[in-house]
Amino acid sequence: MRPGSPSLGTMTVDRVAVSGGDLVVETHTGTSEPIVVVHGVSSQRRLWGWLRAKSPHLTLVAPDLRGRGDSVDVTGQSSLAQHADDLDAVMDALGLDAAHVCGMSMGGFVSVEFAARYPSRVKSLILVDGGVPVAPPAGLTRESVAAVFADRIARTRQRFDAVEDYVDFLVSTSLPLLDRDNPLLRAYAEHDLVDGSVRLSSDAVVADAEDVFFGVSRFRELTMPIRLLHAQWSVGANSAPMYSPEDIERHALTSTTPMMALDHAGTIMTSVGAAAVGARIDEALRNG
């Protein structure tokens, strides 16, 4: 960490200059070396609240990616490559030469791109239901990405007069298996909202989703250790998973953790999922 870093158990917020503005980064200081954590396409840094609760010993460096949360006003085109360059700037600003990197969903794909562009900065990757190349869902085209992600985009066009209304919206659309009364979910929702509006760029969501499904993955270039955790379902019980058994077999991954009875969001936004992710991070810290 940079000189004068905070004492254990503290939280600091930094603003890091990137192309188009300032990226806001939250660091929770535990007893471990820093782990850079990268959220998903329509998410923000409070996604990691469940992981902090289950593994308070971990030092987590959690940016709001451009177009999300406190970084919503960062201008310029959003892409996996741009997010990777932003992470490079974050590590420079915080005095980190190299770190383990954990990415969830689209954040996994950002982490892979970052590791390919800046391999000396990444000790290992922990990928949570993302990052490993996967074919687009049947029928998905570049032109239909906005329609497929309509529920994420819809939240940017609505006003929510109460946090509870927004939590209800989230649970009724993309987070059906989560406990709407969980205080961590409320804190997550509160971070999204300012004056009833959701701080999320619909343009960034569409551009990044297009890049995930139709961009060129650099996954095969990577040489650092990779650990994948993958959910049994996508959105809700009994839905088709993001990664099929055939997908896992095709990439011949040596370290995979199936997350049974969890959907995509539940891999990190539940105590069970967060505990599993924390265990794989601990393994990476021990063994590289």
Provide a compact summary of the structure.
It contains 10 helices and 10 strands. It is of the alpha/beta class and 288 residues long.
Quickly count the helices: 10
Percent strand equals 15-25%
The chain-level structural class is: alpha/beta
Net shape: globular
Strand order of the largest sheet: 1-2-4-3-5-6-9-10
DSSP helix fraction: 25-40%
In quaternary terms, these chains amount to single chain
Order of helices and strands: EEEHEHEHEHHHHEEHEHEH
**How much is the radius of gyration in Å?**
17 Å
- pLDDT < 50 runs, ≥5 residues: none
Reported for the largest beta sheet, the result is:
8 strands, mixed
Count the E strands. 10
Overview of the structural elements:
This protein is an alpha/beta fold and 288 residues long. Helices cover 34% and strands 18% of the residues. The protein is built from 10 helices and 10 strands. It has helices at 49-54, 80-93, 106-117, 145-148, 150-154, 163-173, 183-192, 202-214, 245-250, 271-287, and strands at residues 11-18, 21-28, 34-38, 59-63, 99-104, 122-128, 193-194, 197-198, 226-231, 256-259. The strands form 2 sheets. It has an 8-stranded mixed sheet with strand order 1-2-4-3-5-6-9-10, with helices on both faces. Strands 7-8 form a two-stranded antiparallel ribbon. Strand 1 and strand 2 form a beta hairpin. Helix 2 (80-93) crosses helix 3 (106-117) and helix 6 (163-173) crosses helix 7. The protein is globular and about 45 Å long. The two termini are 19 Å apart. 45% of the residues are buried. The mean pLDDT is 94.
